[in-house]
Amino acid sequence: MDKPEKKTTRRDFLFTTSYTVGAVGLGAVVWPLIDQMNPDKAQKALATTEVDISQIEPGKSITVLWRGKPVFLKRRTQEEIAEARSVSLSDLPHPEKDEERVKDGKDEWLVMLGVCTHLGCVPLSNKGDYKGWFCPCHGSHYDVSGRIRKGPAPKNMEIPKYEFVDSNTIKIG
Amino acid sequence: MSEHEYVPKSKIGKWFNDRLPLLSLASHLTDYPTPKNLNYWWTFGGILTFCLLTQIITGVVLAMHYVAHADLAFASVEHIMRDVNYGWLIRYIHSNGASMFFLAVYIHIFRALFYGSYKSPREVIWIIGLAIYLLMMAAAFMGYVLPWGQMSFWGATVITNLFSAIPLVGDSITTWLWGAYSVDNPTLNRFFSLHYLIPFLILGLVVLHIWALHIPGNNNPVGIDIKKPSKDTVPFHPYITIKDTFALLLFMIIFAGFVFFAPNVLGHSDNYIQANPMVTPAHIVPEWYLLPFYAILRSVPDKLGGVILMFGAIFILFVLPWLDTSKVRSAVFRPIYRQFFWILVVDVLMLGYMGAMPAEGIYLVLARVGTIYYFLHFIVILPVVGYLEKTEPVPLSISEPVLGGTADYSMAKKDNEKI
To answer: Which of A119, A121, A149, A172 has the most B C-beta neighbours within 10 Å, making it the best mutation to test the interface with B?
Structure first.
């Protein structure tokens, strides 16, 4: 065990410190090269969109572009709201109450990313087995609350951060 | 590696060769002893080299006229088609060239599967080849995005979203790939950069692929080790070069047939509509050469599971040399494996067809059966058949036929004495 070549020498210390400093230096060089691919300031600057909703009739919806993605703004009828709320949570692959997906007192407005949570296609509205949305790419069915009911998508369609600026304007983002 | 020391005849040749032995390399490549029984399935290596060079040359030219910007890309491709001198020809060669490249690579891969070319001592050749195949798929996918049509955009969306299936970091990775919050201009820009890079990486791997090949030498249709050089071999030039050239000419006739008579038959008409992030085409399909994997992806009713199986379908090929337990290489002498080989061919073709069909009803059922069989072939059938199969007698050399079911060692000895 106490052979002379097994002893820690000054050379070992030099090796260890050199490798350590080298690794830190390499990391410092590689990180900017990786991070430059993340969204830049110009992309981040597009983070909010204001939408005028005064022209939307009950039962109709519009689609707007936010951060390069479509956002569905649907003004739901009372029957549709009732239907969405009659569903038992145990029937849902991703259990979420309809109340959690809309703002308090604004039950008729469903504001949601129009992006299928499977592989990012735009689902078609008023289609599918649950009268909500149907994704043509790989066959995911969503209900009138945008919740996944059948197909390969793992989650309900996402609700973006948004607020009512006044009764006729929604700010997304 | 080299069977004899090469000495250039001229004084200047010798002077140069002593400093950089390029002439020795050229001599090695021309004299390289090749099994004399190589059939036409062995000509696809040369054909693939031609395909790679075609893609690089036409690609460099296209990049002189193409604009990698979300607002301008679609119009610049139409500009190439209508305004640039011979632009239509160069673009059609490039777009059909990708399909021809994959056609050739699939034949090349299935040739290796049939004749056991992936087995010891050629595992490293096989693995480098698979790395080339992976890079080819990446290059083809990114290239298909560049025209910025509807299929470009939605293909890019679906494929990049595959990464969002990764637990915890999935969403960060997709955002990082996009450089935005969806497929957008930064995505197009970086795909162009990488699409230009990858062919040169492939070129480097091709050099390693051929280098690794020249260590043990070519496998051959009877799949036996041969003495090199011997009466079982012929020099690469002129015997193989002329055979490769003839096969290449036939291949080029088919290639030209697509370019001049059916340049869009392998593409999708939706890609002549400019990308629109608001509308997904009713039926998204990848290019034909990715369809079997697409069918596997869609056959699993779970997002992460589908992604894992799809990548698994490729990565399982990396361990193939260790899954196949048979000591006999060529399927010519493997009566059971031979049948399973053809079932696998049919299975992959069927998966390709299912990938092009909507994922519902009987198509979905058949895609699932096909997926299960694909994995069954590699994980169960290959190891088990290797143990149980009674192989047919293998000849001792290419020159000597199999005699009466058992190898005649006296013949082999006589053969060796002649060398």
So the answer is: A119
Count of structural domains, chain B: 1
β-bridge pairing A124-125 and A61-66: unpaired
In which residue are the tokens 């049939």 written? Answer: B114
Q: How far is CA B32 from CA A2, A105, B118, in A?
A: 55, 82, 20
Q: Is A120 left (phi over 0), alpha (psi -120 to 50) or beta?
A: left
Residue B176 pLDDT > 80: yes
- The pTM of the full predicted model, rounded to 2 decimals, is 0.89
Identify whether B77 is part of a domain. no
- Contacts with A140 from chain B: Cβ below 8 Å: none
Option in A65, A138, A153 nearest B277 (CB): A65
A118 and B161 within 8 Å at the Cβ level: the answer is: yes
Handedness of CA B337, B338, B339, B341 (dihedral sign): positive
Q: Which residue among B175, B300, B306 sits closest to A38, beta carbon to beta carbon?
A: B175
Task: Please name which of B394, B398, B416, B419 lies closest in space to residue B407, comparing C-alpha atoms.
Answer: B394
The stretch B33-43 carries a mean pLDDT of 95
Nearest to B284 among A39, A121, A123 (CB): A121
CATH code of the domain containing B346 = 1.10.287
**Structural domain of residue B321, as residue ranges?**
288-388
How does strand A61-66 pair with strand B33-35? unpaired
Q: Does A122 touch chain B (CB under 8 A)?
A: yes
Task: Please indicate if any CB of chain B lies within 8 Å of the CB of A94.
Answer: no
Quick check: is B259 in a domain? no
Cβ contacts (< 8 Å) between A123 and chain B: which residues?
280
- B145 lies in some domain: no
Instruction: Please give the average per-residue pLDDT across B130-135, as a whole number.
Output: 98
Does B156 map to a domain? no
